[in-house]
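Entry 14. Ran structure prediction on the chain below.
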Amino acid sequence: MKASHHSHSGQFCKHAAGSLEDVVKAAIDRGFDVFGLTEHVPRYRTEDLYPEEVEITPSDLLRTFDEFILEAHRLKALYAKQITLLVGLETDYITDNDLDQLEILIARHGDRIEYVVGSVHHCNGIPIDFDKPTFERAVASFADSSAIEIENSNPGQAQIAFLNEYLDAQLRLMQRISPEVIGHFDLCRLYTPNLSFESVWQKVERNIQYAVSYGAVFELNAAAFRKGWDCAYPGRDIVKLIQSMNGTFVLSDDSHGPAAVGLNYDRLYAYINEMHISRIAVLKDAEGKNRAGRILEPVIGIQSKFDTITSTSMTLGIAVMVPAGAARCIWRAPLVARPSMPYLSPTIVVPSYSSRLHHIARSGLLSSNERQHARNYRITPNSTLKCVNFPRFLSFTSHRPAAGVAISKLVPAPLRADPNQAANLRQLFALAKPEKTTLLTAFGLLLISSSVTMSVPLTFGKLIDFFSHGAQPGTLPISVTPATAGVVLLALFTLGAAANAGRVILMRSASARIVARLRKATYSSALRQDIEFLERSAGPGDVVSRLNADTYIVGDSLTGNLSDGVRAIVTASIGLSLMFYLSPTLTALMLAIVPPVSLGAFAYGRYLKRLSNRTQEGLGDMTKVANEALSAVRTVQAFTAAPREEARFAAKVEHVQDLAIKEARAAAMFFGATGWSGNVVVLGLLAYGGSLVSRGQISVGDLTSLLMYTAYVGGSLSMLSSFFSSLMKGLGASERVFQLLGRKPEIRGDSGTVFDIARDYGNIEFKNVSFAYPSRPGAEILRGFSMKIEGKGDSVAIVGKSGSGKSSVQSLLFRFYDPHSGKILVNGKEIHNYSVESWRSAIAIVPQDPVLFTGTIAENISYGHATASQSDIEEAARLANCDFVWEMPDKFHTKIGRDSLSGGQRQRIAIARALLKKPALLCLDEATSALDALSELRVNEAIERILQSQETSTLIVAHRLSTISRAGRIVVLEGGRVTEEGKYHELVADPDSRFRVLMASQLEAL
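Output, structure tokens:
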């Protein structure tokens, strides 16, 4: 589906030659399915910024736009079979005064303007969406008008102030107009790369959050490519920021006249692919809907698509309650009532009314008839207005931009369970499939034990009747002696007890196996997730909570709880059958309690499921906080921060406690009500049953049996309620487990060709790579980064300031992340063509802070290389200068933990671990940064030995000159790009070298 949501003609705004119908015909010819006609609001200032536009007076403003609206709707009807036309307006906001004019137009055409493209083209009358010189003149003019002195020492002061004002203007537009589409969101140009635009980016983020909160979508503008997208726009950074906030995009060509319709769409699709934009929205007519007054504008928290609204009274506004799935929001005054509005109940009581409509009515811009209309339909402080049926006029449909365009994702998909509860239930029961035989056997034993149990009331009733009629002692109805009957009953009870014991053993064994399999699968899935997901979206604490608490609840739901549910069903079925056999009348009376209890159980179970999900998430957050503090307990104690961590943990605990109290209250109400209902029913049965006994319609024994069965059935119904609520609780916990199990990592470890060192290894080349961490999409770390490692034996050291992207290069090499643009090639082939597992097996890293696991030294060196022999381990330790190992009593069998060794010893163990792999490429990430002089010397000796061997390529990230100087080549990284490259002696000898500047203090110390 091809769509544009923002197109102009020259007929009304005079931006280009051609009529509105010419633009529509061009859209049809070029294959558009959806096309938005969004004429500029005509400006009427004498100092108009566009020389091609005619001056327009206030009296012409409404007439001109009326003509556009009438023509647009004529074309919409005329070409309805060929194209979907949407009629909107583009704000073209320049000063705050324009907002008044916009509200006038919206008030006048509220039911004919189908959507608004909110664009802030200019700031205080100055255009900023042209070329660089125009922008610079705008900044200078703004500085003069704002009395901002541009100092030589801070040339960006005026630019920053200008952009801040621009972004504040954009926020004012959204607060006043709440446009469906945010147009030209990327126009805040950042021309001076060395300036700190922190305040500007904070406002960019603020505005995006605001737009996302009320359901706006963001325009990707094809016209940006003809205006120099790559020249100055920070569009890529802003797109990444919008993606990180789950924002949605629409496409626009921003055509000015028929010749520009559809231009640059090929480049736009290429850009979408480059930016990994996975979802594009299309605005469509919401069939059968009437906009009915667009001046009712959302301010906060509204979603893009909903059906109807009802309203309640609220001072200075209207609180609008939307249906399930949409959020609560506030709708702004002014209200414009129109005679054609389809009124619904209930009513809105508006205690106060904005003066803005009164101002519009008095402004002289409305005709006498319109002023009379405003007087007739204005809302006075005591008047009421029935709520209008006010859906969003437009719906949003996701689609792929064009056939053949490959779309990938920048941010890992959020964890969402299948919304279909039945599907979740099927997933839950599928976990029990391997235990099918065990569970069926357990259910068979359950039938035996339940049958024995349910035979007791009938037997007791018959015995009561027999003895109450004066039967001779020693005889029974079935011609056996009491002793024999006692033995038979005892054997029957023993059988029931044995069956029950077997059921418990089988069920609990099956539960343990199910939980074990589920934990293994969940842990395996967690280990294979994206680094970004584990570090940011979920976190180790949340994963641990899913492994422990959630999996246990799921296993219990499938076995113990399911067993209780089946037992309750069997007991209730047998009991009800025998009750109908004994007295249909009394049984019908007892069943009167079932419908209300069932409805209550259903409502309670649904509530408990939601509460369970929140509780498990709260437990995950609590575990996350505890893990974080306990893993850094030395830092916590060193900074006497225990009270702070206690407060953080207490807040999480109290949140879980509050949820538990809510669950307790709900359980108390439900079980108290069902218990009371059951007792009332028993009382009624006893009273009515007694009257039946006195009339001889039922025996005392049968009434006793029936009352016992009532207790059993009542207990079963209560058990069924508990079963349902526990099942809902299990479903809530299972969602979190299934979310993790079902999540497919973006970087798959097993996809691609197996990498073979002998066959595939060669030069490693970064070509024009750009990258930003998903947690900070607006802060690009690498920008057009290019570098080459010349095969085996080559050694390259990357130097630069902290935060310049040195470690990010290694993260990309290990495919912990993928670059947003550019390529990483190995022997001429793109790195993502190889499977991640085989590629990582061919390379190794020594991190700045190496991790040791609990175990022996030998186990730590052979980590990831389980088949290594003892001689291989010792050889790797020798190469890494791990001579301290031989001095230990147990040598390589010495037990160690995370912090059992010194920093230098841990570093050398990490080097030995890396060397044992015999990697094609060894990455050293600040391997000596935290070491004392002696430890640094020993580690550097190990590095020197590696470099001299010429058996592996080496990529060194370091600050220490003693490490850097050993590399064959040095690459200087600044601002995400390579600014200098050369051999150590060449760079040191060059007085203008950037390397020399960076290393000045260390070079002076030599």
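Residues 44-54, 190-194, 228-233, 287-419 have pLDDT under 50 and may be disordered. Will compare against last week's run tomorrow.
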